[in-house]
Amino acid sequence: MKLAIGSLIIGFVVLGLKGLAYWMTGSVALLSDALESTVNVATAFAALFAIRLAARPADANHPYGHHKAEFFSAVLEGVMIIIAAILILKESYTAFLTPRVLDAPIDGLLVNALATVVNAAWSAVLLRQGRRQKSAALVADGKHLFTDVLTSIGVIVGLLLALATGWWRLDAAVASLVAVNILWSGSKLVKESLSVLLDEAVPEETLGVVRSIISTEAGGAIEAHDLRTRHAGRVTFIDFHLVVPGETTVFEAHEICDRVEAALRATIADAKITIHVEPEHKSKHTGIVVLD
After folding, report:
1. Position with higher pLDDT, 268 vs 101
2. I need a surface site. Which of 3, 70, 199, 223 has the fewest CB within 10 A?
3. What angle do CA 135, 217, 244 make, to 5 degrees?
4. How far apart are CA 50 and CA 68, in angstroms?
5. Domain containing 130: what range?
6. Band of the pLDDT at 109, cuts 50, 70, 90?
7. Minimal CA–CA distance to 36: which of 81, 76, 77, 95?
8. Rounded CA gap, 215 and 241, in Å?
């Protein structure tokens, strides 16, 4: 929550600095950079709302919790990044057709560089903490800020080249190239977030770990099949059918399940596990073989 509030504050500070840089120079590239920062502020609001919603406990209407709220926020950020890129391309096209000499370019670049340093530092914080906390909203916000840093660097390089050569169309040309990069980044973020909303399985490496734990820890059972996984925010959902011998008592089956669940939770943080116990004649002989 504190990180989301910090993103909002940083967003306003950087927007103010970039707006000042544009006001000092009249550069369309700096204007485009400032336009993207307005998206930062809007998405910071969205991330704050999503994190608060995702933190709510499960209830009667949402028995699996509210974890996916963060991924809706991430999709929104990706869409807004794409919109910002389109706006930048539009402004760059206009500036390319009617180039103009900039006012106080050095002063404006210094102000923009300060905003870029602030953004880069905060982006690193969000990415590190978001991955540590498995927060999709914080990671998305960090990636978004990083694209903003790339935008700013591209804008600065373009203006420096324009100053050195006197060819002011470079301002718009470099801004267009950066906009294409932002467009790709936003599309990738939307794709990744939608895969989670569509309940995509955990990565193959994690799936292998789950299979191995079931195989080694479910002693007394025969096999496990119909393994399904998905993740939402910090939570990884795991469910499967566990086949036990027909003479196994309810108590013994429960002990096996407890042992498997404990091993899974010790390896995969915030795992939610559902095990359906079945008698021997339900064996499919195609699942996970339990090692004695």
Report:
1. 268
2. 199
3. 115
4. 9
5. 2-197
6. confident
7. 81
8. 13
Q: In this structure, are 149 and 234 located in the same domain?
A: no
**10 Å Cβ neighbour count for 209?**
15
Q: Are residues 226 and 117 in the same domain?
A: no
Question: Quick one: three-class SS letters along the chain?
Answer: CHHHHHHHHHHHHHHHHHHHHHHHHCCHHHHHHHHHHHHHHHHHHHHHHHHHHHCCCCCCCCCCCCCCHHHHHHHHHHHHHHHHHHHHHHHHHHHHHCCCCCCCHHHHHHHHHHHHHHHHHHHHHHHHHHHHHCCHHHHHHHHHHHHHHHHHHHHHHHHHHHHHHCCCHHHHHHHHHHHHHHHHHHHHHHHHHHHHHCCCCCCHHHHHHHHHHHHHHCECECEEEEEEEEEECCEEEEEEEEECCCCCCHHHHHHHHHHHHHHHHHHCCCEEEEEEEECHHHCCCCCEECCC
CATH label of the domain that carries residue 254: 3.30.70.1350
CA distances to 19, 31, 134, 152, 159 from 100, rounded to whole Å, are 19, 14, 46, 20, 12
Contact 264, 273 (CB under 8 A): yes
- Compute the distance between CA of residue 239 and CA of residue 229 in angstroms, rounded to an integer: 7
The Cα 96–Cα 289 span in angstroms is 65
Q: Which of 198, 3, 24 is nearest to 111 (CA)?
A: 24
Determine the pLDDT at residue 19.
85
Q: Return the closest-CA partner of residue 158 out of 99, 86, 80, 90.
A: 99
Instruction: Please report, for the domain that includes residue 63, its CATH number.
Output: 1.20.1510.10
Q: Which of 1-10, 61-70, 266-275 has the highest average model confidence (pLDDT)?
A: 266-275
β 223-232/235-243 pair status: antiparallel
- Is the CB of residue 186 less than 8 Å from the CB of residue 40? no
Residues 181 and 266 in one domain: no
